[in-house]
Design brief:
With 131 residues, the chain is mainly β. It contains 2 helices and 7 strands. The chain has helices spanning 2-13, 30-34, and strands at 21-22, 42-49, 58-65, 72-81, 87-98, 103-109, 119-129. A 4-stranded antiparallel β-sheet has the order 1-7-4-5, with no helix packed on it. Strands 2-3-6 form a 3-stranded antiparallel β-sheet, with no helix packed on it.
Length: 131
Amino acid sequence: MIVIVVAMLVIALGADDETTTPAPTDTTTEKTRDSRGERADLISFRLDDRSQAGITDIWVVWTIRNSSSEKSDYSWDWEAVGASGTRLTNGSQLETDVRPGQTAWDEYPTTLKTVKGVKLNITSFDRTAGL
């Protein structure tokens, strides 16, 4: 049973787009989204600095809009790169059961100490049909 599940995951993830691209922002245009295929469904992925009173509190925040005709699951890997080109942190995110035309929003904490000069990149992205 475990072998079947692992095989299914390998097959499903085999079509990942392994290129590194800058994360989308809220200002992405419709024309740009159309030219990127499934990845265009990730309409916003950004850092949100909530730090105050000397306490660091930085989150990644995203918005997914399902432009397909079927319920979808999304998974993507990302990295945060400093101004010198050094990768500061990375992670994987998952958004599941997004219905056609539906928009989903979520957030996740990071270990970043600052957002100054930090650039987010999407290192892989996959959309699969939801069950």
